[in-house]
Amino acid sequence: MKEDKKVKAKVQSPELRIKNFDEVNLGYTDEEALKEASRCLQCQNPRCVKGCPVNIQIPNFINAIKENNLEEAYRIISLSSSLPAVCGRVCPQEKQCEKMCIKGFKSDAIAIGSLERYVADNASKNDSIKINPNNGKKVAIIGSGPSGLSCAFELVKEGFKVTIYEVLHKAGGVLTYGIPEFRLPKKIVEDEINKLKNLGVDIKTNVPIGNAITIDELKKEYDAVFLGTGAGLPKFMNIKGEDANGVFSANEILTRINLMNAYKKDSKTPIKKAKVAYVIGGGNVAMDTVRSLKRLGIKTHLMYRRSEEELPARKEEIEHAKEEDIIFDLLTNPVEILTDDDNNVIGMNVVNMELTEPSEDGRRGVKEIENSIHKVECDMVVMALGTRPNHEAIKKSNINIDEKGLIVVEDTKTSIDNVYAGGDIVTGAATVILAMEAGRKAATKIIENTK
Ligand code: FAD
Ligand code: SF4
Ligand code: SF4
Q: For a 10 Å CB count at each end of the chain, is N or C smaller?
């Protein structure tokens, strides 16, 4: 039978890329994209579309690639997504559109994400976006992550005056401070932000909403407020020694690297020069952290309490991390961080774990194996165990939150009149595409309710 493997885009070689922060995946050439697009069966009932959270008309845009009409392909994608260059790169495609692709049952699924990225990177975009005349209404958006950006985009097109308030000195949320340059070049995010600014969106950075400016005050000035403040607070294990010098949260490491350029030689806020680092966790955050530290010349381990099969990170990141000689310590968990007399990290006591039967949600549990505690040596430990919502913005309001601290919404509306919310602050840590869609839905509601 004829081979029907997907066309793989070229990547920087592992030997080269562990010495730089440039993008790893180099993207399709025209020829490669055409070849991959030609594998698509153009299904009448395309399962892939159902797998995409925003239902991009995948066969149609792939067909436009085949017809060498990238502008049309871009137009089709843009009907459903305002950040295709981002989502083509970072969506967990293997759990979404590509998982559902019919080709995947007998051979490789179509590389939908890579094709989407190809279109976004190569189409000469018609930036003449139609903007309705000013409708006299004003909306404040708190947070400039994907939910805030996509909400702003939809509103400004309708003629709203939109102001985004961002606590950090750069806009973009996790796209800017979390996901490293080698996965998502910052130029792409900056271009998206500049596009919004050119459309008239006012982005005010270094403004923490919550204390000096409260939601109640914003409500007086604006017709509606959208909260897209994400879930940026790190979680810790609460084990002995976690307060030692050399223990960090992944957020801190990634923020220093991405936002404060700590990887550059002349950085004024460099990262501790460790010899051996253990990153604890198995999601995208853990993978981004461990691969960033590797690029700083540190011997890096990823420690995860379940097995490889349960690693929640994107498949491509796991493959790339392995190629980069990251050491995977699976089915292992820290129980204590060991320190010297000056409270510097010198190692960890860790325990071996075993998987237990899956629970109702289908996820396998884990338990410690008796008498398996042993010591590992290291001088840095980074906790990448997930995040929780930060309530700074809402602390002086009486907005309803649930037992996990997430904002409760009905159709994107919070318990306070004219205040809407979406993205990680509502769902907990999720994905770029879901945050973006939540921002879009909230914009639709704001448009409906402020007429
Ligand atoms: P965020 O992107 O978190 O943006 C919230 C913004 O609000 C931030 O800029 C914050 O500074 C600002 N803010 C917070 N409080 C205030 C305040 N009081 N006043 C003003 N501004 C405030 N998803 C994927 O789909 N694929 C991936 O590969 C992927 N990798 C990831 C890697 C990392 C390291 C991380 C952390 C997350 C990753 N995610 C990934 C998840 C994804 O990035 C998030 O789900 C998404 O960014 C959530 O968007 P958001 O708009 O809700 O919030
Ligand atoms: Fe697939 Fe994400 Fe693109 Fe949807 S947005 S088609 S899930 S890569
Ligand atoms: Fe093409 Fe796969 Fe979608 Fe069918 S399911 S239209 S083969 S991408």
A: N
Residue 134 alpha carbon to ligand 1 centre in Å: 30
pLDDT in tens, 215-230: 999 999 999 999 999 9
Q: Where are the alpha helices (DSSP H) in 308-422?
A: 315-323
**Cβ pair 420, 440 in contact under 8 A:** no
Q: Which two tokens stand for residue 420?
A: 């809407």
The protein residue with its alpha carbon nearest to ligand 2, atom 7, reads 52
Q: What is the largest CA-CA distance in the chain?
A: 71
Rg (CA), the chain: 23
For the chain, report the end-to-end CA distance as a whole number of angstroms.
60
Identify which ligand lies nearest to the alpha carbon of 51.
Answer: 2
Please list the ranges in the chain whose pLDDT falls under 70.
1-2, 126-128
Q: Residue 236 and residue 123: Cα distance in Å, rounded?
A: 44
Dist. CA 9 → ligand 3 center (Å) = 19
CA of 237 to the centre of ligand 1 (A): 22
Q: Is 114 in the pocket of ligand 2 (CB under 6 A)?
A: no
Q: Which residues are bridge partners to 202 per DSSP? A: 163
Contacts of 87 (CB under 8 A, 6+ apart): 81, 113, 116, 432, 433, 436
Full set of structural domains in the chain with CATH: 14-122 (1.10.1060.10), 138-232+389-449 (3.50.50.60), 233-387 (3.50.50.60)
Residue 111 CA to ligand 3 center (angstroms) comes to 10
Is residue 323 helix, strand or coil? helix
Alpha carbon distance 393, 417 (integer Å): 16
Q: Whose CA is closest to atom 36 on ligand 1? A: 178
Encoding tokens for residue 267?
A: 């950085």
Number of residues in the chain: 451
Tokens for 163? Answer: 């102001």
pLDDT in tens, 67-97: 999 999 999 998 888 899 999 999 999 999 9
Say how many CA atoms lie within 13 Å of 97 toward its Cβ.
Answer: 24
Residue nearest to atom 4 of ligand 2 (CA): 52
Report residue 430 as tokens: 């999720």
127 CA distance to ligand 1 middle (Å): 26
